[in-house]
Amino acid sequence: AVEAASLGLVSEAIHRYRELLGLDTAHLAARNNLSHLLETTGDPAEALEQLSAALRLTPDDVNLLVSRGAIHGRLKQHIEAEADLRRALKLDPAHTQGHLTLGMVLWRKGVPAQAAQALRHAISLEPDNATAHYYLGEALNQANDLPGARAALQRAADLGPDHGRTFRLLGRVLDALVRADLAADT
To answer: What is the structure's pLDDT at 186?
Structure first.
């Protein structure tokens, strides 16, 4: 299954993981990998089922909770996403990906101040995480903290100079700052 996935043979990899799980229903790596493949092929509902089955076996697995929370978040199931992510962070308060994912979920939910808090925590744990800086810029922009958004996006651009979306948003923020300066001058 791993070899098939590495060769881009996703259907075969999914089939092999299902075979493995037929032989060993408690194989956590197989459930996790199958979940990832299912989500990337457009079946997030079954991906959630696989992660939930794995969590029934190991309910305190922080990585599984973060993965399931991320899928819930992408499906705009904010209550479920937050529950999984907050549980994961209670179990492991230093889990960078957990804080980052929680920040992204909160940003998508439309609570930028809470999102910024989670993202700043992720950045405190991993200062060179370009994705965390980018989403902090998104959250601060959404909160109308344009100088803060500019600083976060500039840092994201410094860390990940090949991410076009960072520069697009940075351009919009700079444009808004210029407009705000012009309005203040009148």
So the answer is: 46
**Non-local CB neighbours of 116 within 8 Å, separated by 6+ positions:** 103, 136, 139, 140, 143, 148
Handedness of CA 112, 118, 121, 126 (dihedral sign): negative
Amino acid at the residue 90: K
DSSP codes joined into one string, 77-107:
-HHHHHHHHHHHHHH-TT-HHHHHHHHHHHH
16's enclosing H/E stretch is helix 10-23
pLDDT at 163: 87
Alpha-carbon dihedral sign for residues 86, 88, 93, 97: negative
pLDDT in tens, 101-123: 999 999 999 999 999 999 999 99
Amino acid at 129: N
Structure-block tokens of residue 35: 């979940």
pTM listed for this prediction: 0.89
Q: Hey, what are 145's tokens? A: 């903290």
